[in-house]
Specification:
Helix content: under 10%
Organism: Acidovorax soli
Number of domains: 1
Strand content: over 45%
Order of helices and strands: HEEEEEEEEEEEEEEEEEEEEEEEEEEEE
Keywords: Signal
CATH class: Mainly Beta
Protein name: PQQ-dependent catabolism-associated beta-propeller protein
CATH topology: Methylamine Dehydrogenase, Chain H
Strand order of the largest sheet: 3-2-1-28
């Protein structure tokens, strides 16, 4: 993943012993079939080094794993929530996972080293940041074909498509900026300087605010989506932790929009920010390098992927305290909660 540590482009994948493979098959077969109960009960964690999605229930009990493409990163549900789409950085693909069958059912070839993506409102088009080509690329998911691409600053990562499908915001880590892209005209129409190494995006639509994490500045920039200008910066300080180790990346918004949770990376904390007055109200200790965050639909539990300690931490958002921490596969990247 783009950020503080370089990644190999041609990793060596050693063969696993047959006994491990058989165990993995048993584990896959043991995942209970997803049922349309209307109650969220599945949490998916992508493991970059194991090339798998780990499956948990919402209480943090491990249910199994799903083999996918190489180095899975960002995940989203496709419309209907029967399938998950996942970007795979080393095999240069988007993988499609059938959640009921618990297996990879299709792949879409994309550019080299795909990072984050977002979907068009109808779910038919994926807009993917292609790090090595410095572009935002659009792909027809069903047709498995490229549609167009737009040049960005170097090392694009975060992608957020507006609700009307007309625009996309894209972070450029090396340019310290967010680009506003007109998806019909296929061009950048605004570049907004945000801070050092912007990574991820979160939209508070009711407040007309786009929040941007600045990994190497220990801050979040808040953009007014009406004027397309930065109107506020939120600085993070963790007692006893150097500012250089406070590396915010992932964010999750509470269902009522009152709080934004920010993963502070190597500070091994997650911060709760009051969305209205922009004050940091809590800092919750978690595992090592907390980046990937996801919120339960009821807003009571936050799930945090700890990339360097190979763990998932569940946080009680009301008490702002950890509930439990469970082991995942190697290098958990992102978290996806069943809606």
């Amino acid at each position: 993943m783009a950020g503080t540590a370089p990644k190999p482009h041609h990793p060596l994948h050693r063969k696993r012993p047959l006994s491990w493979a058989l165990a993995a098959l048993v584990c896959l077969a043991s995942i209970p079939a997803a049922q349309a109960t209307g109650v969220p009960d599945r949490v998916y964690v992508s493991n970059e080094k194991d090339h798998r999605l780990q499956v948990f229930n919402t209480r943090g009990d491990r249910l199994g794993e799903i083999a996918v493409c190489q180095r899975p990163r960002h995940m989203m549900f496709l419309p209907g929530h029967a399938q998950i789409i996942v970007s795979c950085g080393d095999s240069d693909q988007l993988g499609i996972v059938d959640v009921t069958a618990g297996r990879l059912v299709a792949t879409v070839p994309v550019g080299e080293s795909p990072e984050i993506f977002d979907l068009s409102p109808d779910g038919k088009t994926a807009y993917v940041s292609i790090e090595d080509d410095n572009v935002l690329a659009a792909y027809d998911i069903a047709g498995k074909k490229p549609l167009f691409q737009v040049q960005t600053g170097k090392e694009p990562e975060g992608v957020l498509v507006t609700a009307d499908g007309q625009f996309a915001y894209v972070t450029s880590e090396a340019a310290d900026a967010v680009h506003l892209i007109d998806l019909a005209q296929h061009k950048v129409v605004k570049t907004i300087k945000t801070g050092k190494r912007p990574r991820r995006l979160a939209l508070l639509a009711a407040a007309n605010e786009l929040w941007v994490t600045n990994e190497l500045e220990a801050s979040v920039a808040v953009i007014d989506t009406t004027s397309q200008q930065v109107k506020h910066k939120i600085a993070f300080n963790v007692p006893g932790v150097p500012t250089t180790d406070i590396t915010p990346v992932g964010m999750a918004i509470s269902p009522d929009g009152a709080s934004v949770w920010v993963g502070l990376g190597r500070a091994n904390r997650v911060a709760r920010v009051n969305a209205a007055d922009k004050t940091v109200t809590h800092q919750v200790p978690v595992g090592r390098r907390a980046w990937g965050l996801a919120m339960h639909p009821d807003g009571k539990t936050l799930y945090v992927a700890n990339g360097l300690s190979d763990e998932l931490t569940l946080i009680d958002t009301i008490a702002a305290k950890p509930l439990r921490t469970v082991a995942t596969g190697r290098t958990p990247s992102s978290v996806l909660v069943e809606p």
